[in-house]
Design brief:
This protein is of the alpha+beta class. Helix content is about 30%, strand content about 30%. The strands form three sheets. Strands 8, 9, 10, 11, 12, 13 and 14 form a seven-stranded antiparallel sheet that branches. Helix 1 runs parallel beside helix 6. It is globular.
Length: about 240
């Protein structure tokens, strides 16, 4: 598969065309951002670690019949993926209350609600990726109600599988955000990455943060936290 021109560059990844119109190469960078790009830095080995972690998770999800854009990992920083039309939405899943929701509603971080909480953010940098509801999403033509039904059904199953996966290595899946896209043949699939950049992951015993909050909150040892997640998942 030949790597061709750069199609898109985001905060943490680059997307390249290939000689197949329906296949892209996703390259992971060491760049880190927080607070809608206000805070920026380079984190040693972050791209390699997120690539490795996402590979393990996506292969696990595929084995459990979750459709994804992932095809295979090419090298330490790159994956071969199906080209999809991304829904301009982030789906946030909260098993525990933390981060922005804790601040927004004045609920102590780490509180476990009786229900799983699902949120949508409209991916629009100019607007600061605002929190929206299902009806907003349809109104701005980000998706249809039929699309949302498929997305929520997949998200519920993904959450169940990830809770089980991380529990097996002594990690609490606090919350995470995911994206979906449509393939050339119209199938809705999980896309982008699942990594400590996109999920809050706490040690089951100590509640130490092993995710991007170490960067957001200046806790230090960011690379070491990501390495710990990769090491534990690698035992499976």
């Amino acid at each position: 598969m030949e790597k061709k021109e750069l199609l898109y560059e985001g905060k943490a990844k680059q997307i390249y065309a290939t000689d197949d119109a329906n296949v892209i190469i996703m390259h992971y960078k060491d760049d880190a951002t927080a607070y809608n790009g206000i805070k920026k830095a380079q984190i040693r080995d972050k791209g390699e670690l997120n690539n490795k972690i996402t590979t393990i998770i996506y292969e696990y999800l595929a084995k459990n019949n979750i459709p994804t854009h992932y095809i295979k990992t090419l090298n330490e920083r790159e994956e071969l993926c199906k080209k999809v039309k991304i829904f301009p939405l982030e789906v946030i899943v909260r098993n525990y209350i933390a981060g922005s929701m804790s601040k927004r509603l004045d609920i102590p971080e780490g509180t476990k609600p009786e229900n799983v909480i699902y949120e949508l953010c409209y991916k629009n940098d100019a607007l600061g990726d605002p929190l929206i509801n299902d009806h907003h999403a349809v109104a701005v033509k980000a998706c249809s109600y039929e699309d949302l039904k498929v997305i929520y059904d997949l998200t519920k199953r993904i959450n169940e599988l990830l809770i089980e996966l991380f529990k097996g290595v002594g990690i609490i899946l606090v919350d995470f955000k995911i994206e979906f896209g449509k393939t050339a043949d119209g199938e809705i699939v999980l896309a982008d990455e699942i990594s400590p950049d996109t999920a809050r992951l706490w040690d089951e015993k100590t509640h130490d943060k092993l995710d991007k909050d170490r960067f957001r909150r200046d806790l230090g040892h960011v690379t070491e936290a990501y390495q710990e997640i990769y090491k534990r998942l690698g035992r499976l």
